[in-house]
Amino acid sequence: MQNIRNFSIIAHIDHGKSTLADRLIQHAGMVSDRQFRDQILDNMEIERERGITIKSQTISLPYTSRAGTEYTLNLIDTPGHVDFSYEVSRALASCEGVLLLVDASQGVQAQTLANLYAAMEHDLVIIPVINKIDLPSANIDMAKEQIENELGLDSDLAVLCSAKEGTGIVDVFEAIVERIPPPSGEIDRPLTSLIFDAHYDSFRGTIVSCRVFDGSVKPGDIIRFMSNGATYKVEEVGVFHLARSARKVLLAGDVGYIISGVKTVSDTRVGDTITMDSKPAPAPLPGFKDVKPVVFSSIYPISSDDYLSLADALEKYKLNDAALIYQKDSSIALGQGFRCGFLGLLHLEIVQERLEREFDQSIIMTVPSVQYRFILVDGETIVVDNPQYYPDPLRIKSGFEPFIKATIIIPERYMGAVMKLCLERRGTNPRFSYPSPGRIEIIFDMPLAEVIFDFYDKLKTITQGYGSFDYDLTEYRESDLVKLDILVNGEKVDALSLIVHKERAREWGVQVCDRLKEEIPRHQFKIAIQGAIGGKIISRSTITPFRKDVIAKCYGGDISRKRKLLEKQKKGKKKMKMVGSVMIPQSAFVAVLKTNDE
């Protein structure tokens, strides 16, 4: 156990986590140059395209130190996005130390701080690593100063490296074996093992990634999951190299996998404790919680005939992603579909893209919303995540919406534009700090509903890519919430309804009406698109009709003849409007989701 080191790499998005992991794997000789590809731990096509890590990966690296000692280094790679912060916290609980990457040109960013605090909560050894020192814009002195001032770490101990060029990689390895302590634990105690990830294999069932703290586990043992009491017989244990490598036994301190015939990923919960059925541990490991979705949207097939195929695709997708929650839903406008819960907006985008690519589904998603709480006049509290279930306004005593603590780090010159954006989005109670000259940290309390839509894109645009953003859910606060209905030709379109704050209702109504006006084709009669709160119309756009020139053939004569033809046309239009129904194209539902600038 003295020669094992368990560590993780944490950083802000795009600071080079996956590139550093690539270099460590290459240096350890785990992959030949011919087989190597960038982001080698990222298996999904979408991860490579976007340059982000979605599913955390693990790999055991053999390393011989300068002193000649052989070590096993277990790298537990973590997703970098705020949506997956719970997975990151479980991965950190499986380690004894972390490499905290800081970009030499950008310095300390919002998620660098958030990740540092997460690592400190688990009492981990933190090794600062300044990456990208090969860039022309690299400013190592600035990065060291920020590590001292903002992170409170000793910058003299920072390791300099360039993951892209491969310089300083040996120094990183040496820092890991010298500074990170070996795992502590006893083989004689009852088995306690923390699940930090799980993925689905169509031949073997769920493969559980775990860190063994005490005891040992081998094929043939009967194990128990402590959160739900389910028992399974172990078929295989082993460690992760680039492929799975089976072992006879996993001992205290090891990081590896267990295959035990678990049918779906949702049966295994990240953060759960595995123990022996015959000799269970007295208490589970701390920190387990059920992940709750925060953003909700409905998914509908473009053709109603594809409903069963979408149901099948979601079932298969759920095998791989336990965080997705869905249930049946229906809409008058779009037919049968599913109401889904996501961890955040990135999670929603990933689910949408994977359903379209991997399962070949053509889908429409409704406007994302959050969970609102309403206290009714009779004292009952209800939770609403779908505008269709908004209660009768006369029964509502008060409404509450979720708030977040948003941390934004920007260069000082963008302060005015960012403040304006946050205040437009109903941000309150701003707090400022100046971590280093020329940079400012702003903390706002903001409603989650205002952030999930296009806030991050807008922030990146107005700060020219220099702004960084991180958030934590804090509490529910009382808000004046109303339901905005969209009427097309006097009929409600339920799939376009929204729950919004009363102050922003007119703005939203105008925006949606203008969007629909562009998307709905012209008909033979005039079409009114209206935004309404209850019976009160707050916005309107009108689509002008096609008009045949009926008086073209009258090239003279009495005016009454022309008037007669126009009156006849007017009657015909009125009759057509009474019997004509408006065709709303699929693109109209998608257009409502777009931001103002597009």
Q: Which helices and strands occur, and which strands form pairs?
A:
Elements: E1 4-10, H1 17-27, H2 45-50, E2 58-64, E3 70-77, H3 85-93, E4 97-103, H4 110-121, E5 125-131, H5 140-149, E6 159-160, H6 169-179, E7 192-201, E8 205-214, E9 216-217, E10 222-225, E11 231-233, E12 236-240, E13 244-247, E14 250-251, E15 255-259, E16 273-276, E17 295-301, H7 307-320, E18 325-331, E19 335-342, H8 345-358, E20 363-365, E21 372-376, E22 381-384, E23 396-411, H9 415-424, E24 428-436, E25 439-447, H10 448-451, H11 455-462, E26 468-479, E27 481-488, E28 491-492, E29 498-501, H12 502-519, E30 527-533, E31 536-543, H13 559-579, H14 586-591
Parallel strand pairs: 1-3, 1-4, 4-5, 5-6
Antiparallel strand pairs: 2-3, 7-8, 7-16, 8-15, 9-14, 10-11, 10-16, 12-13, 12-15, 17-19, 17-20, 18-19, 21-22, 21-23, 23-25, 23-26, 24-25, 27-28, 27-29, 27-30, 30-31
